[in-house]
Write a structure and sequence with these properties.
The chain is an alpha/beta fold. Helices cover about 50% and strands about 15% of the residues. The chain folds into 2 domains: about 5-230, TIM Barrel; about 240-285, no CATH class. It has helices at about 5-10, 25-35, 45-50, 60-75, 90-100, 130-140, 155-160, 160-175, 190-195, 215-225, 235-250, 265-270, 275-285; strands at about 15-20, 40, 80, 105-110, 150-155, 180, 200-205, 225-230. An 8-stranded parallel beta barrel has the order 1-2-3-4-5-6-7-8, surrounded by 8 helices. The longest helix is centred in the C-terminal third of the chain and has 20 residues, at about 235-250.
Length: about 290
Amino acid sequence: MRATTKLRQLLATGRAVVAPGVFDGLSARLTAQAGFAAVYASGGAIARSAGIPDLGLLSLSEIVARLEMIADAVEVPVIADADTGYGNALNVQRAVRAFERAGVAALHLEDQTFPKKCGHYEDKGLVPVGEMAQKLKAARDALADQDLIVIARTDAIAVEGFAAALDRAAAYGEAGADVIFVEAPTTEEEIATVARRFPGWKLINMFQGGKTPLLPVARLETLGYNIVIIPSDLQRAAIKAMQRALDCIAREGSTAAMTADMASFKEREAVIDTPAYIARDKRYAS
């Protein structure tokens, strides 16, 4: 079954799909092995894994290369961050085709001006509603697989206010978006209002330390949210773990003192399925 169809079937169950944020093949594998039904290829996490902030600095080709890696590593659907589509409607079409070839099941486009900023940064700019609507129509027209899910994200709350964000999201739904994504609501009431306003599929961004209050997945599901992305928490945990290991090496010359907090050599190889690769290599060599 195509990943796009698989994701649509998951959403049709009415259960919330929780998609932790991943940024490479290893983080994607770990997430799938943990039992999650989908992964979220976070543009911010991918940027930070390259050592740069989430300010729209990576090119389309750099993002697509990482998406190919992620999609190849797992069999679960990949929900991808397409930022602003990297330009105008024609850029959007080129990006959508590239994302589709990379193997993603869904992608979201946002209404920020290019280059974009992380949705929880300040001082963002928005394109006109009509321009974003045309980008969404261009995205749909570019698809070879009409099951690929197009998600419309608006960052209007921080720029134009909550009411304007709702109006923008409604316009984007009319333009052909499959899923509505109102970024960075700041209260539980705003979260609930978005859910009431839009009867179709909805996505919400949940991560520790952001502008949006954290709610349990069961509560979000009851409200009517269909996708819950958690973009940065895996990477932030990994940063702390690497810092602890580096401190240990700097102090003692090795990580022997924190062996219990590390995957063993065997465990590491199991995560990336090395035994299966070696078995295939032997089979083809005979």
